[in-house]
Amino acid sequence: MTHPADPWPAPRPNGPVHGTVRVPGSKSLTNRYLVLAALAEGPSRLRGVLDSRDSRLMVQALTALGASISQVAPGTVEVVPVPDGGPRLPADGVTIDCGLAGTVMRFVPPVAALASGAVHFTGDEAALARPMGPVLEALAALGVRVDGPGAETGTLPFTIHGGGADGGRVEVDASGSSQFISGLLLAAPRLRRGLHLVHTGASVPSPEHIGMTVAVLRRCGVTVDDSVPGQWRVSPGPIRSLDTAVEPDLSNAGPFLAAAVATGGTVSVPDWPAETTQIGDRWRSILPAFGATVEFSPVPSASGTTGTETRTDTGTLTVSGSLDEDGRPRITAPGDLDGTAELAPTAAALCLLADGPGRLTGIGHLRGHETDRLTALATESGRLGGQVEEGPDSLSFPGGRDHLHGATLQTYEDHRMATFAAVLGLAVPGVLVRDIATTAKTMPDFPRMWTGLVDGSDGPDA
Ligand SMILES: O=C(O)C1=C[C@@H](OP(=O)(O)O)[C@@H](O)[C@H](O)C1
Ligand SMILES: C=C(OP(=O)(O)O)C(=O)O
């Protein structure tokens, strides 16, 4: 693969962008399936798995803990679980590099708690700022010894000494990240007494992601009772092996769909699940707030005997923007958009380009993401000449893009800051993006896919 230029000149189309984009597998589903497959009662087969920095870090982490994960065909991996009784870890333990992956740093420590031996967790420098305290406190409350410098500060690096966890009731303040809950729930069926997790803080962000965790656990035959709001009871028991395909990453579809809105064009994403737990399905309601039309066409069944049957499990999502009487993209003022979570950076790019004001609310926890995304989005918008008001948990955009001008945008090792910049580059001349390669966290092929869509250089399938 050729290395993209740094800074990377964001491609700017001559007119509306039209194309079809196949997005790679979901990061959130890939890393959940990998964890459950590593803890399952037999081998699993996963198709359409994401191959990116975050998924590779997860594969390495689970391999260090005794799972055996191999690619058996392009995009297909076989997972042989950690042997019963846990892996035989070396006397001085193993080290797990979490990179900047929230799913690795929050999902793997509870798995390490099941092993016997020391598991040291480290990560990128930027990862040391991401909150871990509630996970470490919950593990300690469950009888797991946690030490190392981060045990005091509630951050990486830390060491988990597994073998002591029995399960039972535990309280967790997950107002900082839904991943604190997801991580504990994923390993919970393997605890002798299961887990009764009680959330104690303000509201849990990204509730869709907890719904996804519960859904994948149930799919593996695990009993989860979530009938009491803010509480989850996971029964102890085996985790059934998986033989499944990973849905495309609908959050990562966002910047491509936003390209239709930003340029007044049309972008289609095939293999869109008709029903899903992914938060990215919310593009269907978010993009119309910017004036886009969203259409879902179920795909005709390949195996239908009558030739008229339709499969309702997937379809193609098509987003169309529009042009005003002067031939300029019409991007309507979205008003308030609440709880956009990991979709916020892409929504922010459209808010900046919109014809009137918009506000993203309920996103305070994004300060603990790859970077403090509220400050980063406000700062980088400012570089382009956009005056964004940063509140404790909101961003307000005045709208009106005529005064925006080119600039070199920083990305803070944050893949979604990079795609935010790329979307703006569609409409604002002279946008350069620092470290576009940071998109490798979840979408290593992003620069080629984006250029293919914008230039049409790869034909209709970018
Ligand atoms: O469980 C997951 O797969 C994720 C949960 C969310 O984390 P937060 O709850 O910390 O926002 C989301 O933003 C992240 O990208 C992925
Ligand atoms: C917050 C994100 O990632 P992570 O899984 O590292 O938390 C994200 O992808 O927007």
Commentary on this structure:
It is a single chain. This protein is an alpha/beta fold. The chain has two domains: 224 residues, UDP-n-acetylglucosamine1-carboxyvinyl-transferase, Chain (Alpha-beta prism); 208 residues, UDP-n-acetylglucosamine1-carboxyvinyl-transferase, Chain, CATH 3.65.10.10. It is 29% helix and 23% strand. The strands form seven sheets. Strands 2-15-17-16 form a four-stranded mixed sheet, with helices on one face. Strands 4-5-3-14 form a four-stranded mixed sheet, with helices on one face. A hairpin with a 2-residue loop joins strand 4 and strand 5. Helix 1 packs parallel to helix 3, helix 1 runs parallel beside helix 7 and helix 6 packs parallel to helix 7. It is globular. The two termini are 16 Å apart. It binds shikimate-3-phosphate and phosphoenolpyruvate. The site of phosphoenolpyruvate has 8 residues, from helix 3.
Mean pLDDT: 95
Could you say how many structural domains there are in total? 2
- Please state the second-level CATH architecture of the largest domain: Alpha-beta prism
The total of beta strands comes to: 25
Radius of gyration: 22 Å
> What compounds sit in this structure?
shikimate-3-phosphate, phosphoenolpyruvate
Write the layout of secondary structure elements.
Layout (H helix, E strand, L loop, with lengths): L7 E2 L8 E3 L6 H12 L5 E4 L5 H12 L3 E6 L2 E5 L13 E4 L4 H11 L5 E5 L10 H9 L3 E3 L1 H5 L4 E4 L6 E5 L6 H9 L7 E5 L7 H13 L4 E2 L5 E4 L8 E3 L4 H14 L2 E8 L9 H4 L6 E8 L9 E11 L1 E2 L5 E2 L4 E4 L5 H10 L4 E4 L11 H11 L5 E2 L3 E4 L9 E3 L5 H13 L3 E3 L12 H10 L7
Parallel strand pairs: 2-15, 3-14, 6-7, 10-11, 20-21, 24-25
Antiparallel strand pairs: 1-25, 3-5, 4-5, 7-9, 8-9, 11-13, 12-13, 15-17, 16-17, 18-19, 21-23, 22-23
Helix pairs in contact: 1-2, 1-3, 1-7, 3-6, 4-6, 6-7, 8-10, 8-12, 10-12
Shikimate-3-phosphate (S3P) binds next to helix 3 and helix 6.
